[in-house]
């Protein structure tokens, strides 16, 4: 029987795998995809994410990540810029996740790519993992790092803000627009949602956005209609996308995101990581940091002989306030009544943006 099986080779699963392998543990990691993939993500790497990556042996700058030093907030009327109160970078997930998985392999972890977990079931003192193409596995300890969606047999509550759909599209921008965007993350407000825009390592622009399901339905589900609404509500985006070419056939999408969810309890031998443990609203750009941190924390506590329950409680204590505040702000950003008040507050008190950015991050003293 394998000692530890990790389900999911994203940021959280890889962070745990590397930490366990460094301590000489025998680990198997199951990843459903055979090849590097694009993921729905704004690809903004916060200071906490960069710190974790460094500890895991990944040099984001060496992979070509771009520095992000400023933030602009744009709504129907104005654009307000300020400096980011911390270091940040941007890097595509296709590149970053693959670099981490390569490091996992280099550390001696058995990585099984193209292996999809169909179901996770309690079996005596351990767990049975049912796979799509191979015999099932019996294991003592499972690290569940499969991202936003539940593994069959292990469902979660839905989260506080649960009516949003997430999208990502890359654009080749007009050179003047790309030059103006360089070094900034831009937060764009529109009816029923918000977007983030920034350049990634190859010079293309990542437009990541979330939109209310009801709004999406009223637009017939067509992404060109969504873009039209976003541009109408945010003239700054219209300027940014003038003469821009979309680089994917259609945006990548993810629905039923349980924003605001933070897991508090665990069953014996089942450690939930990353989005399986906590889902912070996207505007904070700290979801990747949480994924990396939770993977490292879970592995360290496992190695120290602590229980899954103790880990889940500690992570909850570290993150619940930040996630709750971020979710409150995120709900305000998509509410027509509150959005205007928030934008006006930021215009009158530009420091508000920095304060919200600081209060919605993993606390510095929690980081390993
Ligand atoms: C619109 C949007 C924008 C965002 N922008 C940012 C941002 O700018 N900055 C930031 O820090 N965070 C951002 N996030 C959050 C961030 O993307 C996630 O928090 C992060 O990807 C979570 O990492 P993870 O390892 O938990 O899951 P994932 O990265 O989703 O990895 C899960 C892995 O598990 C694999 N898997 C899934 N199911 C199975 C299965 N059944 N069997 C085997 N393998 C499986 C998947 O293929 C995947 O590789 C954003 C999220 C959204 C929705």
Structure explained in plain terms:
The chain is an alpha/beta fold and 368 residues long. It has a single domain, classed as 3-Layer(bba) Sandwich (FAD/NAD(P)-binding domain), CATH 3.50.50.60. Helices cover 35% and strands 27% of the residues. The chain is built from eleven helices and 16 strands. Strands 3, 4, 5, 10, 11, 12, 13, 14 and 15 form a nine-stranded mixed sheet that branches. Strands 1, 2, 6, 7, 8, 9 and 16 form a seven-stranded mixed sheet that branches. The longest helix has 26 residues, at 308-333. It is globular and about 60 Å long. The mean pLDDT is 94. Flavin-adenine dinucleotide binds at residues 7-13, 30-33, 39-44, 49, 116-117, 145-148, 151, 166, 196, 208, 210, 254, 257, 274-275, 282, 285-289, 291. Flavin-adenine dinucleotide binds next to helix 1, strand 2, strand 13 and helix 8.
Low-confidence spans: none
Would you tell me the overall average pLDDT? 94
By DSSP (H or I, 4+ residues per run), the number of helices equals: 11
What's the alpha carbon Rg, rounded to whole Å? 20 Å
Name of the CATH first level = Alpha Beta
Question: What's the β-strand tally?
Answer: 16
Summarize this, please?
By secondary structure, this protein is of the alpha/beta class. The protein contains 11 helices and 16 strands. Helices cover 35% and strands 27% of the residues.
């Amino acid at each position: 029987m394998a000692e530890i099986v990790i389900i999911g080779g994203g940021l959280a699963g890889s962070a745990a795998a590397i930490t366990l392998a460094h301590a000489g543990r025998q680990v198997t990691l199951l990843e459903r995809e055979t090849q590097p993939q694009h993921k729905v993500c704004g690809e903004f790497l916060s200071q906490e994410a960069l710190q974790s990556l460094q500890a895991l042996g990944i040099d984001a700058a060496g992979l070509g990540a771009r520095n992000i030093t400023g933030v602009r907030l744009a709504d129907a009327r104005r654009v307000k810029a300020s400096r980011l109160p911390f270091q940040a970078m941007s890097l595509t997930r296709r590149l970053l996740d693959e670099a981490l998985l390569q490091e996992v392999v280099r550390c001696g972890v058995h990585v099984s790519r193209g292996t999809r977990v169909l179901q996770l079931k309690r079996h005596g003192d351990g767990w049975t993992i049912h796979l799509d193409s191979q015999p099932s596995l019996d294991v003592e300890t499972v690290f569940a790092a499969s991202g936003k969606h539940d593994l069959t047999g292990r469902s979660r509550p839905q989260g506080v803000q649960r009516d949003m759909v997430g999208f990502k599209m890359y654009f080749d921008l007009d050179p003047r627009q790309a030059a103006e965007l360089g070094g900034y993350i831009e937060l764009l407000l529109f009816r029923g949602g918000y977007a983030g825009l920034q350049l990634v390592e190859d010079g293309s622009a990542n437009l990541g956005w979330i939109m209310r399901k009801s709004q999406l339905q009223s637009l017939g589900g067509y992404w060109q209609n969504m873009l039209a609404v976003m541009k109408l509500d945010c003239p700054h985006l219209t300027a940014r996308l003038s003469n821009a070419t979309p680089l994917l056939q259609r945006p990548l999408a993810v629905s039923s995101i349980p924003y605001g969810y933070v897991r508090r309890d665990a069953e014996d031998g089942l450690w939930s990581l990353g989005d399986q443990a906590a889902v912070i609203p996207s505007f904070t750009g700290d979801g990747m940091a949480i994924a990396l941190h939770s993977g490292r924390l879970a592995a360290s506590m496992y190695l120290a002989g602590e229980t899954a329950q103790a880990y889940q409680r500690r992570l909850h204590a570290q993150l619940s306030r930040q996630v709750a505040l971020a979710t409150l702000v995120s709900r305000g950003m998509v509410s027509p009544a509150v959005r205007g008040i928030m934008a006006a507050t930021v215009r009158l008190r530009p420091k508000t943006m920095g304060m919200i950015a600081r209060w919605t991050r993993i606390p510095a003293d929690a980081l390993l």
